[in-house]
UniProtKB/TrEMBL annotation, chain A:
PANTHER family: D,D-DIPEPTIDE TRANSPORT SYSTEM PERMEASE PROTEIN DDPC-RELATED, OLIGOPEPTIDE TRANSPORT SYSTEM PERMEASE PROTEIN APPC. SUPFAM superfamilies: MetI-like (SSF161098). The lineage of its organism: Bacteria, Pseudomonadati, Pseudomonadota, Alphaproteobacteria, Rhodospirillales. This is ABC transporter permease. Keywords: Cell membrane, Membrane, Peptide transport, Protein transport, Transmembrane, Transmembrane helix, Transport.
TrEMBL record, chain B:
Coiled coil: none annotated. Gene3D superfamilies: Dipeptide-binding Protein, Domain 3, Periplasmic binding protein-like II. The lineage of its organism: Bacteria, Pseudomonadati, Pseudomonadota, Alphaproteobacteria, Rhodospirillales. Pfam families: SBP_bac_5. It comes from Dongia sedimenti. It is found in: Periplasm. It comes from the Bacteria. Belongs to the bacterial solute-binding protein 5 family. This is ABC transporter substrate-binding protein. Residues 96-481 form the Solute-binding protein family domain. InterPro entries: Peptide/Ni-bd (IPR030678), SBP_5 (IPR039424), SBP_5_dom (IPR000914).
Length: 353, 570
């Protein structure tokens, strides 16, 4: 639109006074990165889809109680629904042939109820998908925060202080890294899933969502802590840090002012990538019955529910599978965009903006 | 050709065609002619071929005195013989006990405490050894030496069994099982008369094996038997292969008839879905495991001629631990029994054709069964009709157990887990804080028996060992079946009511002399135990057998189910 283009051009100081006025100082690295990210169409599209998924899942409770009028955490084997004026059973016994078996209602494609059909307990799969998505996203986010927090503390401590601290932390990381990640997560889940955990004031009861959150958060710590340690080691020997040391700047100030801001970009790059990874791990654990515990749902548990209905009602397993794939894809594409935006190696291109 | 020649050719042609049709005709249809030639014709026509059975997994040890799975008990029928055996018949006939390695039913003396068996002559084991009275004595000793799972439950009434149970390795059953080589007899002495001893002698744990069989679990090395077939190889990760016993000569069609297929193989490692697909594609002849729920409608329509549905004397039930909260409160247990919608569970199991809702312990058609159901709307009809949620909630209020945490233990199989999920939903509706813990089918049954695991409520099934009311009531709810801290405590609810227990013992005594009166007593005991709600009885299942197109002569024996060796594949 011409008017708005003029308006934007008019607001641009460089265009308003191209010759005489002082140029504004170059934008800081954060602003530059943000601008680059905003201009990355793929990353923005992915972010938009991800935000839509989050908003959709946030309406789980509203959808279940006000739109579909269902409670998707209790069995509804004898329930009925009216579709196009015709009353149908949620779980319909077979009336053909020998009359063996009963089949849950298929997708009605109507938001008023059973949009994606029912599972073998007669529960609304779409409503469960929304609740499940909420749990999956919550576990992925919370475990990412825990993972990055631990990784940052351990990686920075090991890299900056070196010596005994580095040796001890690095060996512990090596031990955790020695286990295949899924084997470790499965083993921890099997051992802990049915028992409450008391660590000082922290009590996690059996079946709590915090259990998969902590397990997933912890098992990925070495994968983030190692590169952080490496980066800190490199920063520690960089000229600007050596200069600060030479000037007698205290260690804590060097850590706070010189090291952490540089490490922060790496941590931010890890956020979407770890979320995607954690979501896949959570789904795998829940699919194996050692993640989210029934009657709570996650996309992994719904796939497991659908496993027994693959022949008659494939949508029960397909829908959460697609949801996981799309969410992980959006997080990865967005993560790539964030990495490109914050990657120092692309500074030359940023400078050309 | 002249006209006359044409006529001659036509007459000759008619004669040739008629003769051809006569000599190439099919064998006579069943029902025509005398039975013996008909049987002989069938034996010739259908004898041979390889029958392929498929299963998700192997059934564990192949030792017939240790294995306690339907999977192998079914196959043992053609492999091993006891002194007595269940008749290889269908319907009620299949529950009859007939002489097998014994020439006749035993001669009974000493008010039922002494049983004298005359052993058949000329019978050989599959390794060529002759069957002798020594083998019989050694086999009874071996039941205790290998600590057979039913050694205490079934055979503790044999004189000397108490010592054998205490010190299995040195078991002699002195004075309990006595052989007379000259007379070719074996005498069984019991500490007291046992109305069910014939049944106990007819199950696979009492089969006769060579005297030199190792006194330990043989695992995957099959022991020689006297049946029509023998195990050629067994790899629990791959296949069980059964071939004809070259030394077998039929001596009793009722007890050990010759079979049709030359070879029977059971392949392991398929999923239940894959089993159905294999049978549907005629790549396998029979699937051991029940078809998965989402394939039932398909096989019931597309392959309906290949499906056999048979009622079972069994039950699915949810034992509630009467010794720990919250189910040490009778009202809480009754509330659960009232709240369960059994029709919903029947739907989960596959619909009305495959299960019937019940709420009493003895299954329909079982000795002592009289219709009874207090946990329903309109209980006066004595049949379950609908859940009574109002009454259930009122009982919950009275019990004071609202808000109590409860963990439901189910198997990790699809149906058991579904039933567990449903129970969890009902318990939450009643006000409990319910969780579901599905655990591996391989260990669930022993896990829920051990009181150390503090199981509150579980989902399990019970299939009859033999057709006697005590096999449900005394075994599952008798004080003698409850052993704290043991994996072998089949009274899962831990129910022990001294008064009811005394009545059960009395009924077992009465059964020796007056089975009819005993059945009446069992009906009363059934009502008493049901009222106490130590378990929520859910439904009586039916059995689905899915067979290949080529499999013929399918027969279902109520004791050992599909009679594998009596079916043919060609």
């Amino acid at each position: 639109m011409a008017a708005s283009e003029t308006s934007i051009a008019g607001n641009d100081p460089r265009q308003a006074d191209p010759v005489g006025a002082k140029r504004r100082p170059a934008a800081g690295p954060w602003a530059t990165a943000f601008r680059k990210l905003v201009h990355d169409k793929a990353a923005m599209a992915a972010l938009l889809v991800f935000i839509l998924i989050v908003i959709g899942c946030s309406f789980a409770s509203y959808y279940a109680s006000h739109v579909a009028h269902t409670f998707p955490f209790s069995s509804n084997l004898q329930g009925k629904i009216v579709i196009d004026g015709v009353e149908q059973q949620i779980i319909a016994p077979s009336t053909e042939g020998l009359g063996l078996g009963s089949t849950p209602i298929g997708p009605t494609w109507k938001l008023q109820g059973y949009f994606l059909g029912a599972d073998d307990q007669g529960r609304d799969v779409f409503a469960r998908m929304l609740y499940g998505g909420l749990n999956s996203l919550w576990i992925a986010s919370a475990s990412t925060v825990i993972c990055l927090l631990f990784a940052a503390v351990l990686g920075v401590t090991a890299g900056f202080f070196g010596g005994v601290a580095d040796a001890a932390i690095s060996r512990i990381m090596d031990v955790i890294w020695a286990f295949p990640i899924f084997l470790l997560a499965i083993s921890l889940s099997i051992v802990l899933i049915n028992s409450s955990i008391n660590i000082g004031p922290i009590v996690i009861r059996a079946g709590s969502l915090w259990l998969p959150i902590f397990i997933i958060g912890i098992v990925y710590v070495p994968y983030v802590a190692r590169p952080i340690r490496g980066q800190v080691l490199s920063l520690k020997n960089s000229e600007f840090v050596l200069a600060a040391v030479g000037l007698g700047v205290p260690s804590h100030r060097i850590l706070w002012k010189d090291i952490l801001p540089n490490v922060a970009t790496t941590l931010i790059v890890f956020v979407p990538l770890m979320m995607a990874l954690n979501m896949v791990t959570e789904s795998a654990l829940s699919f194996l019955s050692i993640g989210v515990q029934p009657p709570d749902a996650s996309w992994g548990t719904i796939i497991q529910d659908g496993q027994n209905l693959l022949y008659s009602r494939p949508m029960v397993a397909l829908a959460p599978g697609i949801a996981i794939a799309v969410t992980v894809l959006t997080l990865n594409v967005f993560g790539d965009g964030v990495r490109d935006a914050l990657d120092p190696r692309s500074k030359l291109r940023i400078g050309g903006d | 050709m002249k006209r006359a020649q044409w006529l001659g050719v036509a007459v000759v042609a008619i004669i040739v065609v008629a003769a051809g049709a006569y000599f190439m005709r099919k064998p006579p249809e069943p029902g025509g002619g005398t039975p013996a030639p008909q049987e002989a014709a069938k034996a010739v026509e259908h004898r041979g071929g390889t029958m392929r059975l498929v299963a998700v997994g192997a059934g564990g040890t192949i030792d017939p005195q240790i294995n306690y799975t339907l999977q192998y008990w079914q196959l043992y029928q053609g492999l091993y013989d006891g002194l007595l055996n269940f008749k290889k018949g269908v319907g009620e006939e299949g529950f009859k006990v007939v002489p097998d390695l014994a020439e006749d039913m035993p001669q009974v003396a000493d008010d039922g405490k002494t049983l004298i068996f005359k052993i058949r002559k000329g019978i050989k084991f599959s390794n060529g050894q002759d069957l002798t009275t020594k083998d019989v004595v050694a086999s009874f000793q071996r039941i205790f030496k290998v600590s057979s799972p039913t050694a205490g439950g079934f055979y503790s009434g044999i004189v000397g069994a108490d010592k054998c149970l205490a010190e299995p390795a040195s078991c002699t059953l002195e004075g309990g099982v006595v052989a007379d080589e000259a007379a070719n007899t074996v005498t069984l002495h019991l500490t007291q008369p046992d109305a069910e001893i014939y049944y106990k002698l007819a199950v696979p744990h009492a089969v006769i094996l060579p005297a030199d069989s190792p006194a330990k679990d043989v695992g995957t090395t099959a022991l020689p038997g006297t049946g029509a077939y023998m195990v050629e190889s067994y790899d629990p990760n791959k296949q069980l292969k059964i071939v004809r016993n070259p030394h077998f000569k039929e001596w009793s069609k009722d007890a050990q008839p010759d079979g049709y297929p030359d070879v029977v193989v059971m392949d392991f490692g398929l999923t239940d879905e894959a089993e159905v697909t294999a049978v549907a594609n005629d790549q396998a002849d029979w699937a051991f495991d029940p078809p998965p729920a989402d394939r039932l409608a398909e096989i019931g329509t597309k392959y309906k001629d290949q499906v056999h549905v048979t009622p079972l004397t069994a039950m699915w039930y949810a034992p509630m631990n009467v010794n720990i909260p919250p189910f040490n409160n009778e009202k809480a247990r009754q509330a659960v029994s009232y709240a369960i919608d059994r029709a919903a569970l029947v739907k989960l199991f596959g619909g009305d054709v495959l299960a019937s809702p019940v709420c009493q312990i003895l299954p329909p058609g079982f000795p002592g069964h009289v219709d009874y159901c207090p946990f329903t709307k309109n209980p006066e009809a004595n049949k379950w009709s609908a859940p009574d949620m109002d009454k259930a909630k009122a009982l919950m209020q009275e019990s004071g157990q609202i808000g109590q945490p409860v963990t439901v233990i189910s198997e990790d199989s699809a149906v058991s887990k579904s039933v567990g999920t449903y129970l969890q939903s009902v318990l939450n509706e009643l006000g409990f804080k319910a969780e579901l813990k599905p655990i591996s089918s391989n260990i669930q049954f022993t896990y829920i028996q051990n009181t150390n695991n503090k199981v509150q409520i579980s989902v399990t099934q019970w299939y009859q060992d033999y057709p006697a009311a005590s096999d449900f009531l005394n075994i599952l709810f008798g004080c003698d079946s409850f052993h704290e801290g043991s994996d072998s405590s089949v009274n899962i609810a831990g129910f022990c009511d001294k008064e009811i227990d005394a009545k059960m013992k009395e009924a077992m005594k009465v059964a020796v002399t007056d089975p009819k009166k005993a059945d009446e007593m069992w009906a009363g005991i059934d009502r008493a135990v049901t009222d106490k709600a130590a378990a929520a009885i859910l439904f009586t299942p039916k059995h689905v057998d899915f067979v290949s197109k080529r499999l013929g002569n399918f027969q279902f024996n109520p004791q050992f189910y599909f009679m594998v060796y009596q079916a043919w594949v060609q």
